Amino acid sequence: MVLKTVIKNVVELQNKQIRDFGQGVLRKAAANLPYVTDHPLLIGGMRGSGRTSLLSQVLRNEYADAWYTDFSDPRLAGFDAGDMKKLDELIVESGKGVLLFDNADTADGWEEYLKYKSAVGCVVIATVSLSVFYDIDVEAENHKNNGFVTYLLTPFSYTEFLEFNHKTGNEYMVAEFLRKGTLPEYLKTRKPETLLQLYNDIMTRDVILRNKLRDVAAVSQLALALVASSGTLVSANGLRDKLKVKAVSSVADNMNYLERAGLVSFIPVYSPQPSVRSVNPRKVMAVDTALASVLSPGLFDDANRLLEIAVYRHLLEEDWEICYMSQGEGCDFVAVKNGKPVKLIQVCYSGEYEPLQNKINGLSDAMNFTGLHLGTIVTLNISEKIECEQGVVEIVDADSFLGEDKSFL
């Protein structure tokens, strides 16, 4: 329980702090948020992706007189369902019709309260953890389900990274992007401790405590092994043997928890047959190049795998399912829409002859398998087109691919 006067004082302090929050880089998400009227908008994202910054920009640029509350504030410790009634009394007394709630899912009864306020005519925008966001079963067609509209916030894109650094894109800035990554807080401090603290917070709060895990050592070992394996194929069975864990089910569960917390993503093999997808290894991708390099220093020297992480994250900006292909020489990414492959993408950082030829061979195999006649290879600094028997291989430099030019997508 929290006294009403305490809630009022904390909220007043929070409102001053959020209004003093620096504008920072204007997130593309701020202009792309769904228009909400009769449903609350939930913004989900991994810890450190900039959810609070986005809310501050919404407050500054769209709803200057909005009500703001951060439910994760330690000064609101013990906030329960009864306290929600006190908060509502304060909101009603204020007369405000736009409500911005940060970390809403840390408050008891938050779902019902958000729906209620939306039903009585308030505009309601709230941030939630990535795990809770995934629990909201989003309907693909209109992004409405369980009474919510949803929006997934990702870390900085390449173009946002350039804006943050006040630079224009080029080969050098791509290398900087791979080195410094996409996480806003680290880009501000440039201190490895920031990344390590973020990793510890994610592991402690979003993985171990949220899922009530007892074997902390096992899930921590698994997290580091997966990050170090970014860009390679993994399976629960293989990881069980490697880490000497008794139950494969424990490994599979922990892999799911780590993905839901945002640390890694798993990419299935492309196949029209669900049974094939379910039995094949998945490709694991770390969430951020800088975080991956800090947790697994060997990755820092593997520019190709770092570029692969960046290309994958960029592909996620489109409304595609991302798979990989194992036929022949293999294909790094297959973009799938409505169950059909629409794009084939390879990554070859150096552009040297032998690895580039291997990627071309992989695209040829993928074109044969999918019936597509165009494939793309992302390199650091090469741009040209090559005709082959199956169609056209488009080699493009990473700055163009990751930048605003969407012709490659």
Low-confidence stretches: 138-143
Query: Helix coverage percent of residues?
Result: 40-55%
Most strands sheet: 6 strands, mixed
Label the overall shape.
globular
Tell me the fraction of residues in β-strands, as a range: 15-25%
Side by side, the strands of the main sheet go 2-3-4-1-6-5
Rg result: 23 Å
Mean pLDDT: 89
Number of strands: 15
Which structural category fits the helices and strands?
alpha/beta
Q: How many DSSP helices?
A: 18
The first-to-last residue Cα distance is 52 Å
Describe what you observe in this structure.
The protein is α/β, with parallel strands linked by helices and 409 residues long. Helix content is 46%, strand content 19%. It is built from 18 helices and 15 strands. It has helices at residues 4-20, 28-32, 51-61, 81-94, 110-119, 130-135, 158-165, 171-180, 184-189, 192-209, 216-228, 236-243, 248-261, 274-279, 289-295, 303-315, 353-370, 398-402; strands at residues 41-45, 67-70, 98-102, 123-129, 144-145, 148-152, 233-234, 264-267, 282-286, 321-325, 331-337, 340-347, 374-379, 384-388, 391-397. The strands form 3 sheets. Strands 2-3-4-1-6-5 form a 6-stranded mixed sheet, with helices on both faces. Strands 10-11-12-13-15-14 form a 6-stranded mixed sheet. Strands 7-9-8 form a 3-stranded antiparallel sheet. The longest helix is centred in the middle third of the chain and has 18 residues, at 192-209. The protein is globular, with a radius of gyration of 23 Å. Mean pLDDT is 89; it is low at 138-143.
